[in-house]
Amino acid sequence: MISIVIPVYNVEAYFEECLQALYVQVYGDFEVVMVDDGSTDGSGEICRKWTERDKRFRLISKSNGGLSSARNAGIEASNGDYITFVDSDDAVHPHYLSILMEMASRSEYAIVGVGMTRFTDEMPLIDCKIEKLFHYLPEDALKEMLYQNGMLINSACGKLFSRELIGDIRFREGIMYEDLEWMTRVLEGMPKSKRVGICDAPLYFYRKREGSLIETFSLNRFDVLDVTREIEDRAQEVAKKSRVYRNAKGVLRAARDRRLSANFDIFMQLSKPGREEYATQRQECWREIKRLRIGSLFNPHVRRKNRLGILLSFLGPRICGAVGARFLDLLKA
After folding, report:
1. Residue 333: predicted pLDDT
2. Which of 105, 110, 115, 262 has the CB geometry, 3.0–4.6 Å to 224, for a possible disulfide?
3. Cα(130)–Cα(40) distance, rounded to whole angstroms?
């Protein structure tokens, strides 16, 4: 059985669409664990209605603790051999679970996933045909996720995890970028005999909303600096102890590039007019950029966006910040 964990908080405008997409799944051996994280709108009532409509839908109610807290509560309450996470304002293709289970039937896979596509109002009409299946060793999966240049992204959504693999690994509570932090630890702890399989069929539909956390600036955005620092530190320790130095060194290079990317992002954000109060944090980001940029510049796996940022950085922090901040504004427009 598959356990579908859904954190729920004040999403009454979108939640019905999410649950209806799960209700019509072609693969029927699943449970939906809805975790109402202290909603103050009608989301809780929608949950209760669905528990009466279909016994596969279960409700866990708790005080507000955030996304990670709700996911952790859902994991604890779930019963399936496999776990997948769906955000309450997102939706999935009718064949989402069946495709995941078809891939998971291969015993070597501990994680399988599908492609993701963005939508705003109407769900996209997508052919569920698989054109490509990407097959990863654990360390290769970790590297691709950290380099941010392939099918394997750091979102916990759009994937199916074996319960055995997750074990007692839980989402860190109280931070932003919880998916990156959690996914990295899951892949780091993955047995070398297991594999990750990702298909290119975009069967997970994530909703783009104005004002979402990732679209706005807040002090919580600084969490990515701590998360990527910890990832680099762990990779450094593994590289020191590993007998297979080449593989460990490859992960360390990927970790350093991900940290570079995080510092570039925050540096650009803090270079916007009106954010002079964060001058100290901006300087710290710049120091990390200078420390890491040469290693990434000559790394063939680094994505083009990072290479352009590195070249721009050699013009100095003022020009780099001004151009980068303008680029962010253009992306948001």
Report:
1. 47
2. 262
3. 41
Structure tokens at 308: 């352009």
Interval 7-34: pLDDT, tens: 999 999 999 999 999 999 999 999 999 9
Q: What is the dihedral of CA 52, 54, 57, 61, to 10 degrees?
A: 0
Helix, strand, coil abundance in the chain, percent, nearest 5 = 50, 20, 30
pLDDT recorded at residue 183? 98
pLDDT tens digits for range 282-313? 999 999 999 999 999 999 999 999 999 999 99
Sites in the chain below the pLDDT cut of 70: 210-216, 243-247, 328-333
| Domain ranges (residues) in the chain | 2-207, 217-332
User: Cα separation of 187 and 146, whole Å?
Assistant: 11
Measured from the Cβ of residue 296, the count of other Cβ atoms closer than 10 Å reads 25
Residues 254 and 303: their CA atoms lie apart, in Å, by: 11
**Amino acid present at 95:** H
The third-level CATH classification (topology) of the domain covering 2-207 is Spore Coat Polysaccharide Biosynthesis Protein SpsA; Chain A (3.90.550)
